[in-house]
Amino acid sequence: MGLSTAGVAFKPDSFTPGDEQEMIRRAFGSAFHPIPASEIRNYHDIRVPGNIAVESKNGATFIYNGELAERVLFEGQALEPALLSALGSPEVIVVFCHYDSGGSFGYAIWEKGVRVRSRVHTLDKTSDDGVPMELELPWLQAEQLVDEDGELAYRNMESGEIATEAYVTARMLGQVMDGLFGVAPWDEWDYKTKFNYYLRRPEEAAKQAPGKSWWKIW
Predict the structure, then answer these.
(1) 3-state DSSP assignment of residue 137
(2) What is the pLDDT of residues 53-108, one digit of tens each?
(3) Which of 2, 7, 86, 164 gives 64 a disulfide partner, CB atoms 3.0 to 4.6 angstroms apart?
(4) Surface-to-core class of residue 31, CB atoms within 10 Å of its CB (0-12 exposed, 13-18 middle, 19+ buried)
(5) What sign for the dihedral angle of Cα 53, 188, 93, 124?
(6) Where are the domains of the chain?
């Protein structure tokens, strides 16, 4: 089983579908165009450059785009003021990734345009910066143990859940999303989930097809 998703989450002012399209173009470039779900087949994958999916849930907007997450979480780049403005300068923004296949998980939080918190796990390295929120503490204060496979793991003393170091960050990501937006949207994905899709140079994106829908858990 696995999940691969990444992007940015925030609570916007209300907007119409037309406003959403304008927001995507302002934030990511004028070359992006909406694509009907009936036309995307399996080639649309947010891990491939030039692909975006948008989901609205619980009053929040989730823009799935691997390029943005890579720049912010893996390369350490800041969110550009123009991007913040294009998103409506929301009070809280979270850039996130959850890649089971590569063992990479993380999030970075902005409040009023200022980066205040981040935690990223890649391979065997975890970076943790900023003051943790209270909801993160149970995992940060988890008990160390050696699991049945002889690997170092951690037990959440509140929930009793056990996770490896990588999945401690994955669990914390889920709690951050729940705490700030009331939902970790991928926990509710199924075949009925509705996304709005955008492509940059659709003919190029189609050539890079990875073969499986990016949002599926398999």
Answers:
(1) helix
(2) 999 999 999 999 999 999 999 999 999 999 999 999 999 999 999 999 889 999 99
(3) 7
(4) exposed
(5) negative
(6) 4-128+182-207
